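User: Glutamate 5-kinase. Structure?
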Amino acid sequence: MTRPDLPPSVARDAQRLVLKVGSSLVTNEGRGIDLEAVAQWAEQIAGLHASGRQVVLVSSGAIAEGMARLGWPRRPKLMSELQAAAAVGQMGLIQAYEAAFARHGVRTAQILLTHEDLADRRRYLNARSTLNTLLALGVVPIVNENDTVVTDEIRLGDNDTLGALVTNLIEADTLVILTDQPGLYSADPRKHPDARFIHQGEAGDPALEAMAGGSGSAIGTGGMLTKVLAARRAANSGGHTIIASGREPAVLLRLASGEPIGTELRAGLPVRSARQRWLANHLRLRGRVTLDAGAVRALTQGHRSLLPIGVIAVEGDFERGDVVACVDEHGVECGRGLINYSSADTARILRQPSARIAEILGHLSDPELMHRDNMVVVRMRRDIG
Ligand SMILES: Nc1ncnc2c1ncn2[C@@H]1O[C@H](COP(=O)(O)OP(=O)(O)O)[C@@H](O)[C@H]1O
Ligand SMILES: N[C@@H](CCC(=O)OP(=O)(O)O)C(=O)O
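Assistant: Predicted structure:
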């Protein structure tokens, strides 16, 4: 869907793009890899390369393609079967992409990531430098979640989130999410055919997030909600997001030439530092501390460190250096950061002035429970980090 009276697409000025393609597009609604679509994306990305732009491709479809290859008509429920399907399907995906890009003389690389790779600071920095090196070499990295090794509790589960994390990781200017709809509507168009098309908005706008529903197909996973939330996450590093139809001819080249296609969600939020983003992007936290109202204010308005005196409860089993959530008395997260004391020690020093830490614990690591520099404030109720 083009946007005739609108300003040029943000993709026109993007030097570094992340392109995310969904399972139903990649696998022709689960029938098997859509080689024609893959060929077109490869041709377009080669065209973007020729104009000096760098592209990372985040491709879903491993499970759907694995199911097609194994002759499974329905998505299995068992984790081990999903993982087996992903292992089979990922081979097919990578072969198809490598062959399609080779026709344009463009090299590809496979990158399979887990949440843990991005949560561990050292592995996160490694992933970042590998991706940056590949881009500098003119290679197109093809990223997917490492479905065969992740367990249910630690899966990202949807590649919209992964696309946003990769956007943050390499500080891409624009995240383009291609899907089976022309973009975001005021309600799921599968259920509400009269829904209004949203041409443009601001990433992180709760009104837009309320419009987006789950997946309407048997193949996709996150639906529109994960795409709109991905836009909020991408905006943390200043990345704009475009959600558009993968069936739109030459969609990437047209976007890059400035044609306004799909829904554009602009980054308007203050950009977070790489360290703050790394903290914010932790999807599974080791525990949480409950803050009294004064401590919540000190954190969110005063931009101060968290002291043990403002903590009224502690939950979870964590060590010094783990990422822990700070919640208010209603359990709503207001910040998160690296904690200076284990859960056992925190339980002993909560509600106490910092001057008493050494006396209670027999040692003093830091006067703060969480230092300002190691924290990120979370502002909204429905925050995704
Ligand atoms: N407000 C909305 N606007 C557009 N699509 C929506 C909306 N809410 C839910 N959807 C559903 O989201 C689906 C796209 O997400 P998904 O199935 O996960 O695709 P993909 O495999 O591309 O990630 C659409 O087919 C549509 O049914
Ligand atoms: N890693 C999974 C992708 C899951 C996913 O996010 O799918 P989709 O909602 O179609 O983007 C796979 O390759 O099957």
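The CA atoms of residues 205 and 232 lie 8 Å apart. DSSP finds 14 helices and 13 strands in the chain.
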